[in-house]
């Protein structure tokens, strides 16, 4: 369960959150809101990659600092090195985090043939797959996915849904929060839809 307490966040004069309080109690949550409403910003703050002006985030009663490296995120806002191949980027993460090589996920996304392609030469769909592979291979109990179905073909979306079911089956106390513009497919798959 993720709890947001007294969150305040603004960029210059643009107030994104003012004294925002929310408890995300479902294991699978889909945050639905128009662009510019703070979906990605919320995920970035939950992952500790952006700081709020004030507020607290609790993960089953623990702060992010107490939790350690138990939150994984996939988002376009994290810039991956354009000049490296997908293989090099994944290898770098495997080495840094001590994760096993994600053979099954790479294969499931039909991504193997793109491993030797520079990240900046990948299509938007394959860039999305690379981001998802990096987050999913960490097997963190808290998984945050920003627009995970964007630019994916139908077969990849179905594979992603099956992956997410299996991911949470291994983590009965884990939680998955995604953002999306078209929540229907996720709601039909058991996600609780929450509007900002």
Q: C-alpha Rg, in Å?
A: 16 Å
Order of helices and strands: EEEHEHEHHHEHEHE
Helical fraction: 25-40%
Work out the strand percent: 25-35%
Distance between the termini: 18 Å
Q: Tally the helices: what do you get?
A: 7
Please outline the major beta sheet.
Answer: 5 strands, parallel
- Which geometry do the CA atoms define? globular
Q: Which residues form runs of ≥5 with pLDDT under 50?
A: none
**What is the strand tally?**
8
Order of strands across the main sheet: 5-6-7-3-8
Find the structural class using helix and strand composition: alpha/beta
Mean pLDDT: 94
Question: TL;DR?
Answer:
This protein is an alpha/beta fold and 196 residues long. 32% of the residues lie in helices and 26% in strands.
What does this protein look like?
By secondary structure, this protein is of the alpha/beta class. The protein contains seven helices and eight strands, in the order βββαβαβαααβαβαβ. It has a five-stranded parallel β-sheet. The protein has a three-stranded antiparallel β-sheet with strand order 2-1-4, with no helix packed on it. A hairpin with a 2-residue loop joins strand 1 and strand 2. It is globular. The two termini are 18 Å apart.
């Amino acid at each position: 369960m993720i709890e947001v307490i007294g969150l305040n966040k603004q960029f210059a004069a643009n107030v994104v959150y003012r004294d925002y309080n929310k408890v995300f109690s479902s294991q699978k949550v889909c945050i639905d809101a128009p662009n510019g409403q703070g979906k990605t910003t919320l995920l970035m703050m939950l992952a500790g990659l952006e700081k709020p002006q004030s507020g607290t985030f609790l993960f089953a009663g623990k702060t992010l600092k107490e939790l350690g490296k138990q939150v994984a995120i996939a988002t376009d806002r994290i810039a991956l090195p354009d000049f490296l191949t997908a293989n090099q980027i994944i290898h770098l993460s495997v080495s840094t985090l001590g994760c096993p090589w994600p053979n099954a996920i790479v294969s499931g996304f039909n991504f193997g043939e793109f491993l030797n392609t520079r990240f900046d030469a990948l299509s938007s769909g394959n860039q999305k797959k690379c981001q998802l592979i990096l987050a999913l291979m960490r097997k963190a109990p808290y998984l945050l996915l920003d627009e995970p179905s964007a630019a994916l073909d139908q077969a990849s979306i179905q594979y992603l849904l099956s992956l997410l079911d299996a991911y949470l089956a291994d983590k009965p106390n884990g939680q998955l929060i995604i953002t999306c513009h078209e929540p229907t497919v996720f709601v039909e798959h058991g996600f609780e839809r929450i509007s900002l």
